């Protein structure tokens, strides 16, 4: 008989496997935006737009699993760090969607808004993960 009070092992394994991947894609896109700002080579914005798109595609499944874990499981209330992580990650993904639309424009139109959005997305994801790591270490 399966326990239905918590998340399944498969969901947890998928979440732990896929959750860090979008951060890498968004950090790489941020670095490529900075490289475009310094070199004005169009290939950097093209690569950044692809990285943002792939990062968004990979970010969908962990956010859905996290949504179910935080809000719909039958366990008692989720820790405040997990909820903060969920909301910061969700805000980062919404901004990454806006950033994808900004990067779909001409390369010269990406600066400075694309760089600012990439910076904010990376900062939100890093804050979300650091606060979660610090809170889980204290508990």
Structure, explained:
It is a single chain. This protein has 139 residues and is mostly helical. Helices cover 82% and strands 0% of the residues. The protein is built from six helices and no strands. It has helices at 9-18, 21-39, 42-72, 80-103, 107-110, 113-138. Helix 1 runs antiparallel to helix 3, helix 2 (21-39) packs antiparallel against helix 6 and helix 3 (42-72) runs antiparallel to helix 4. The longest helix is centred in the middle third of the chain and has 31 residues, at 42-72. It is elongated and about 50 Å long. It starts with 8 loop residues before the first helix and ends with a helix. The mean pLDDT is 89.
- Which regions are unreliable across 5 or more consecutive residues at pLDDT < 50? none
User: For the report, how would you describe the main beta sheet?
Assistant: none
The helicity comes to over 70%
Number of strands: 0
Oligomer: single chain
Report the portion of residues in β strands.
Answer: under 5%
How big is the Rg? Answer: 17 Å
Please work out how many helical segments DSSP would assign: 6
Morphology: elongated
Instruction: Return the string of H and E elements.
Output: HHHHHH
Class computed from helices, strands and strand pairing: mainly alpha
